[in-house]
Amino acid sequence: MQVLDERSKKVLCAVVQSYINFPDPVGSRFVTKRYPFGLSPATIRNIMADLEEMGFLTQPHTSAGRVPTDMGYRFYVDSLVAESEHYSNFEILQELYKRIEALKSDIDTFLGETTTTLSKLSHYLGVALSPRPNMITLKRIELFKYKADKVVTILFTDEGLIKNKVISLGSEVSQKDLNRIASYLNSEFSGHTFDEIRLRIVKEMSKEKIRCESLISKAMRICRETLSFYHGDLFISGLSEVLDLPDFADLKKIRELSKAIEDKHTIIKLLDKLSERDGVQVLIGSESSMDEMKKLSMVVSTCREDDRPIGIIGIIGPTRMNYEKAIYIVNNTAKFVSKMLTGM
Amino acid sequence: MQVLDERSKKVLCAVVQSYINFPDPVGSRFVTKRYPFGLSPATIRNIMADLEEMGFLTQPHTSAGRVPTDMGYRFYVDSLVAESEHYSNFEILQELYKRIEALKSDIDTFLGETTTTLSKLSHYLGVALSPRPNMITLKRIELFKYKADKVVTILFTDEGLIKNKVISLGSEVSQKDLNRIASYLNSEFSGHTFDEIRLRIVKEMSKEKIRCESLISKAMRICRETLSFYHGDLFISGLSEVLDLPDFADLKKIRELSKAIEDKHTIIKLLDKLSERDGVQVLIGSESSMDEMKKLSMVVSTCREDDRPIGIIGIIGPTRMNYEKAIYIVNNTAKFVSKMLTGM
DNA sequence: TATTAGCACTTAACCATTGAGAGTGCTAAA
DNA sequence: TTTAGCACTCTCAATGGTTAAGTGCTAATA
After folding, report:
1. Vertex B12 angle, CA B6 and B18, to 5°
2. In angstroms, how far is D3 C1' from B10 CA?
3. Which of A86, A103, A203, B256 has the highest Cβ tally under 10 A?
């Protein structure tokens, strides 16, 4: 790929910025007016034609202005990061602190509320994903007898996540036995990740198969069932925010979006992949190589308590997104949430 | 209000039914074709004019067919109930059983999944509301020390709802003290509804104010905080289903709907009101006297375990809803869920 | 040689007009 | 009391002409 000279870069960024602020294809004349480079529309036209040839811009139709491609957005975002954080907005921070500080509940509702905060601040979709089974470590498990043959299991994790689940055993078990089972499970599995535990259980169970009704095999069954459903919860909110955007003026786009939201699967997969790296990450449109996300971008960041990742939060919006603001919000929210959780 | 003769009733129901099946204003000619009453279009026209005068039908414009008003739908629904359950659809039931039977978790996820089942079956919005604080009775409370000055409280209720919450105390408390607090709370509050407990706490605390740091006052604070957040959870799903309906072809309507969904408050209030009565209930459009619901109808039913209401489930759709099918689905789902929970 | 002014060309968006189609209300006949 | 006939109303889709915006190209210019 050819390298861009300084002037082309400036024009490209101007086009992207202008389009982000105002959802109409931007023309050469408009650029000269708004960004006084000291060049005439004709020159800008030439530059824009080059940029189009290189794949940074496109025209919706012959006689319209230009619109950034995903590649164009990518260039813009990268150059944003390069000149680090110019953007700052004290009001947003204040609002953020106010909203998040008020929440002191379990991690799940905390993450849920964080997404609404993100969406309110950004006017895009707020998302959050609690830790995946390979990242989450068991702290303690408690078992309670509950009606006839049912057992309530409660999982405490190092990440501050608490999960409960009702399990139906085939036969009745006394609370005393449950206590023994629980202490066995705690001694065996405390400190291990869910994935590790699952693996161990599979191994143990094949060994244990012979003495089928032993307490251990019951313990294994309980533990397996408890963990089986856990896959990390996805929180999304703010649909009504994005519906006001001109990008979703089209019914078809709204349908796509709501399908993507309801499916969750795709988004979880993406977030999961993104959670491997640290810091704020931006994924633009087709970069995700998911068809459902073709017209959507994500700005995400992992939250950590000390060194432990306790979830990933972010924003989903149209590719024509205010990346600067989104990055600012996500970055600060992630930092703030991390701090809150560490202190919590 | 005038009383309808048999013929008018039939015509009215024909119009409503036809409009439900096919979202175009229905004309006199169409009625004669589809519903062979042995009457000519002209006669039907006269009848329809009468029905319009009485408020059962309207015309979108002079030369269009007629469309039911909320009153028209109401008449139709009432006459449906009168001739009891004609409708039956074995496939739906099978699908229902298959979907719901697979779920054996805690009530919350159970209700959540039930809403998606409802929406998938009906192609409308599925909703569910867990019991309100005045209906839910505490079975047991457990307290665990969790990191520094934090306490995890776990509520067991008779309804099968298990809730947990992290509470930050100002000062550190030993697990031993927590155990004492828990057993105190259990002996005091077990068997009472959340609302009753809240009331009791307020009273006790004003009494207790003098001995501020006593264990009892700590217990009260913990219990109050635990209960304070509980207001019954609302589950909604199936937005992408309703977006395919012609009733929501308009962007403005979608916005309204998504605002209503996100607000939750309105819907909770409505469901709450509806949960007082038993059996399937239908609320049509403006009958709710909520502006947000002007164009929406609800079909709901309470679920009970034995005698105890354990939530309310239902369907939200456009006023032009297939009430017969919706009633059928809601009714059977409620019954089935109740049975599942009782057996669970 | 790089930039710019000028101009012809393209296209979407807007507007008014038109005609077809559907359905009504009214009147007079059966 | 019901029905056939007819004039009237209104929406919807198609049509065509006009406008405005923006381009690409060419020739002139600094």
Report:
1. 135
2. 20
3. B256
